[in-house]
Amino acid sequence: MTTVQALDFASYPLHVNLLVFACAAGAVWLAGTRVVDYADQLARATGIGGGMIGLVLLGGITSLPEIAVGVSAAWSGLPALAVNNLVGGIAMQKAILAATDGFIGRQALTVIAASPSLLLQCGFSIFMLVIVAMAIVAGDSPLGPVGWWAWALPLAYIVSVWVISASRATPAWQPRAVPGDAGAADSEQPEASGASGVALRSVALGIAVAGAGIFVAGFVLSATADALAEQTGLGANFVGAALLALATSLPELSTVIAAMRLRRYEMAIGDIMGTSMFNLLLIFLVDAIYSGPPVLGQAGTFSLFAVLLCILMSTIYLVGLVERNNRTIARFGIDSLLILLVYGGGMLLLFRMR
């Protein structure tokens, strides 16, 4: 079982594949860290809000490993690996956001960054996940190169981005400031006046180079994960939903941490929500490349449980953004702690289901 024929990682020893996997993951991490710096410069230079930058730009760029893995796995006739990586990545990214909540400490992340735009992003993420769950339960039939249900995903994504973009003109409330952290409430406001010297061409080039690095490293991650699934006996389902999802989520981890340090909290959440929606959109691409029947029609109970886990985690964030409970435990918001517990329990059940 190989993903890239020219690089038969299955023929390499286990320790070599682990080393290559770690190096590729490190490359993804470094490139992801650079991307958020460029995104912050772009947001300040153009006046575009951090939430929209996170949703569209960071969400797309940090999904490049998933694109590489999805294309490679679908081309190799492994739709289960592709779908489970995409869905597992969504759950992993929600857990990453919850884990980084401790960087703030004084208030819960969902209190500081709450905004109508983020509420919509979370709601539309759940909407697209429900479409995938319905497709798995009901089955899918081909309509041209992809299945009926897969066609609904790009339509839902386009509508989601349009509605979220339009909502920025009518904000319902402002994020709460962190006590003792002057300027935190204004951290998402554009600062175009201070960015007049920013060379947009240089920023765009930097984003392109970092994105290319993430994409190439993503292909290597796919190839080595495929070999590791065979060599360790864990199986493609669990490797896709756990190990590969962790590796391809490293850009989100690096960008979220970098955004937190810059106090761009809305950008951090927007990156995670945007990546979740973009991952689901990629199911359409996987279905188009795969030569067999519709991929969602072949997904089983393992994939369905992973999708339901993502819906549960997204719903917890949605409730947190609406309720805005300011209580923290061990520097974490209550919703973030609940997310981590749900993710841990879900991974244990998925391991048993593999």
UniProtKB/TrEMBL annotation:
Pfam families: Na_Ca_ex (PF01699). This is Sodium/calcium exchanger membrane region domain-containing protein. It is found in: Membrane. The keyword Membrane applies. Gene3D superfamilies: NCX, central ion-binding region. It comes from Massilia soli. Its main location: membrane. It is a multi-pass membrane protein. Residues 18-164, 204-350 form the Sodium/calcium exchanger membrane region domain. Keywords: Membrane, Transmembrane, Transmembrane helix.
